[in-house]
UniProtKB/TrEMBL annotation:
Phylogenetic classification of the source organism: Eukaryota, Metazoa, Chordata, Craniata, Vertebrata
Ranges for domain AMP-binding enzyme C-terminal: 558-637
Domain AMP-dependent synthetase/ligase stretches: 111-497
Protein's name in the database: Acetyl-coenzyme A synthetase
The enzyme's E.C. designation: 6.2.1.1
This protein's UniProt keywords: ATP-binding, Ligase, Lipid metabolism, Nucleotide-binding
Length: 679
């Protein structure tokens, strides 16, 4: 028999037990004798002496097991309750949460919502073609998930297998992820802009026998040949038995005996028995770039990841039941996993799937979508905000944004000018901007301005406050903890949390070397940070993005922030390069605002003046190269590694540029750098 820890109900099958389900949301009520803290988080009523959100954060760190046990019991539906909250040793890379517990992630995301509100909208698919959005209720999404799950099982997918998903952001991609979770298979979502070689490398490492894709992708009015890419990739992937193909467009593509049309799922039953999974079974692999260039397949597991994604989605963004949550990332990245799929659906939210680009068919696309879909929380990347800033306020002001309540930023530190524009223009000065810091490795947001007391300040460009259960520390070059404020160091996290990655697939030694050995007993993030006199955190950039000029250490993000404050500048990227005298020099790549007319000589004077004034003379760029665009991934991250290779004249090591949003940008930079070098 299957036992629910919440209701202690017994049932002959999991499905019948789930029909009695548990509510997806938690009433914001004050228990007798409680305080506003319990209204904010009901579990806090059981935390003795905790009053206020700062005290709640302190309790979550100092009484970590009590905090996470209470939250896990309240917010997840368990098939079998856990007996051990955590068994972790960061120095050895051992991370285990909620052992003994069994659950099913798809049940937590779908079945319990269907029991309460079957016709609530789960997904709004904002297709590339503006104004053609499609809505899916929780009932429809559950049925689609079950059909896909049954199709996968019929073609030999078993518990513990790994399915590779190479699809754009769309409802069927979400159903495919949840179908894997339902039947106990792991998923490996590969961003649908990666090349055949990059895809093949990830399929081989994950040892997938099944790939799910589409005939074509559509983004920004352009068509991409997804099936063709998969066909090329699987030629070097002997483990692949079947490729499932869905149709995004009417265009027919060549099919082989290996290929299966996803239309086959319509023959499948709408009920699929959910697998009972251990808390620490693998939920998904997600590959992220490593310093060696070889992608790392980070492993996230069931219970801890889902709990952390759900808790951060609710509290960082002040999400309330009935809100429309608009994360405009791609499902191929961790942001899409945590804040399009798992976090919102576990909370019973309506979540937006954005298939297009910020400037298609015009630079008002985001804000027209906000008006039409009545989005309440908007979560995007700083690079997109800077791009739209370049086009001016008129594209924002054209549309009604009164539905917006919270604005979020993700992917890299947001510079002050972009933050202020986002807050003042997009949010009309009334929406808090949450600049969130986290990584694929962390599973969810770790440092952000919210949650905090309603009247607490938010400082532009700062991530600020650690989330519940997160204890950040700064380390010096000797490996000692820096206890004072107004100081900078290597950012580590002092104790484990449920959402963190457990290992690197097939390479736990690399996981330990990368994250656990640099500062034994601490999780090393690879980022540098500054802690202000008030104890707020500001991310200063990757530690390999720290430049040492004549003994002065400075983060590239700090210089970029100042360069971007120049009125003529839309965005910039700064790197360090080898300098005979200073050790390292500073090279700035600068994109001007649209239709901006300024002499190069005057711009250089302005930039050097403002950098000298805001930071120091030693931080002034030695070289400034004006470019039309910067090399970026499709998710909007600036590829500083590529810029370094160009400046070092190491063009043979540029790697696979097909993953860039516009590979032609690199050639322009190579030619521009060559001209500077000849001067």
């Amino acid at each position: 028999d299957i036992v629910f820890s919440l209701g202690r109900e017994k049932s002959s099958t999991l499905v019948s037990a789930l029909r009695r389900g548990v509510p997806p949301s938690y009433p914001h009520v004050v228990r007798r004798g409680g305080c506003n803290t319990a209204a904010f988080m009901p579990e806090a009523a059981g935390f003795e002496g905790v009053s206020g959100r700062a005290a709640l954060q302190e309790f979550s760190v100092s009484n970590s097991e009590d905090f996470w046990a209470a939250v896990a019991r309240q917010r997840l539906s368990w098939i079998r309750p856990f007996h051990t909250v955590q068994d972790c040793d960061l120095s050895r890379g051992r991370i285990k949460w909620f052992q003994g517990g069994m659950l099913n992630v798809s049940v937590n995301c779908l079945d319990r919502q269907v029991h309460i509100c079957p016709e609530r909208v789960a997904l709004i698919w904002e297709r590339d073609e503006r104004g053609s959005e499609v809505r899916y209720t929780y009932r429809q999404l559950l049925e689609m998930t079950c059909r896909v799950g049954n199709l996968l099982k019929r073609h030999g997918v078993r518990k513990g297998d790994c399915v590779t998903i190479y699809m754009p952001t769309c409802p069927l991609a979400v159903a495919s992820m949840l179908a894997c979770a339902r039947i106990g298979a792991a998923h490996n979502v590969v961003f649908a802009g990666f090349s055949a070689d990059a895809l093949a490398e990830r399929i081989r490492d994950a040892q997938s026998s099944i790939v799910i894709t589409m005939n074509q992708g559509v983004r920004g009015g352009k068509v991409t040949e997804l099936k063709k890419t998969v066909d090329t990739a699987v030629q070097s992937c002997p483990t692949v038995r079947h490729v499932f193909v869905a149709m995004r467009t009417e265009t027919l593509v060549p099919m082989t005996d290996r290929d299966v049309l996803m239309d086959e799922m319509l023959k499948e039953d709408v009920v699929c028995e959910p697998a009972a999974m251990n808390s620490e079974d693998v939920l998904f692999l997600l590959y992220t770039s490593g310093s060696t260039g070889k992608p790392k397949g980070l492993v996230h597991t069931q219970a801890g990841y889902l709990l952390y994604a759900a808790l951060t989605q609710r509290y960082v963004f002040s999400y309330h039941d009935g809100d429309v949550f608009g994360c405009v990332a791609d499902i191929g990245w961790i942001t899409g996993h945590s804040y399009i799929v798992y976090g919102p659906l576990a909370n019973g939210a309506t979540t937006v799937l954005f298939e297009s680009t910020p400037v298609y068919p015009d630079p008002g696309r985001y804000w027209e979508t906000v008006e039409r879909l009545k989005i309440n929380q908007f979560y995007g990347a700083p690079t997109a905000i800077r791009l739209l800033l370049k086009y001016g306020d008129q594209w924002v002001n054209k549309y009604d944004r009164s539905s917006l309540k919270t604005l979020g930023s993700v992917g890299e530190p947001i510079n002050t000018e972009a933050w202020e524009w986002y807050h003042r223009v997009v949010g009309e000065g009334r929406c808090p901007v949450v600049d969130t810091w986290w990584q694929t490795e962390t599973g969810g947001i770790c440092i952000a301005p919210k949650p905090s007391e309603p009247d607490e300040e938010i400082v532009p460009g700062m991530a600020m406050r650690p989330f519940f259960g997160i204890k950040p520390v700064l380390m010096d070059t000797e490996g000692k903890v820096l206890t004072a404020n107004n100081t900078s160091g290597a950012l580590c996290i002092a104790q484990p949390w449920p959402g963190m990655a457990r290992t690197i697939h097939n390479n736990h030694e690399r996981f330990i070397e990368t994250y656990c050995q640099p500062y034994p007993g601490y999780f090393f993030t690879g980022d540098g940070a500054y802690r202000s006199p008030k104890g707020y955190y500001q991310i200063t950039g990757r530690l390999d993005d720290v430049i040492n000029v004549s003994g002065h250490r400075i983060g590239t993000a700090e210089i970029e922030d100042v360069v971007n404050q120049c009125p003529a500048v839309a965005e910039s990227a700064v790197i360090g390069y080898s300098h005979d005298i200073k050790g390292q020099g500073i090279y700035a790549f600068v994109v001007l605002k649209k239709n901006m007319k300024i002499k190069e000589e005057d711009l250089y004077k302005q930039l050097n003046s403002v950098v000298s004034e805001k930071i120091a003379k030693y931080a002034c760029p030695d070289f400034i190269l004006l470019v039309k665009r910067l090399p970026k991934t499709r998710s909007g991250k600036i590829m500083r590694r590529v810029l370094r290779k160009v400046v070092e004249s190491d063009l043979d090591s540029l790697g696979d540029l097909s993953t860039l949003d516009d590979p032609a940008a690199v050639q322009e930079i190579i030619e521009g750098h060559a001209k500077i070098s000849m001067k």
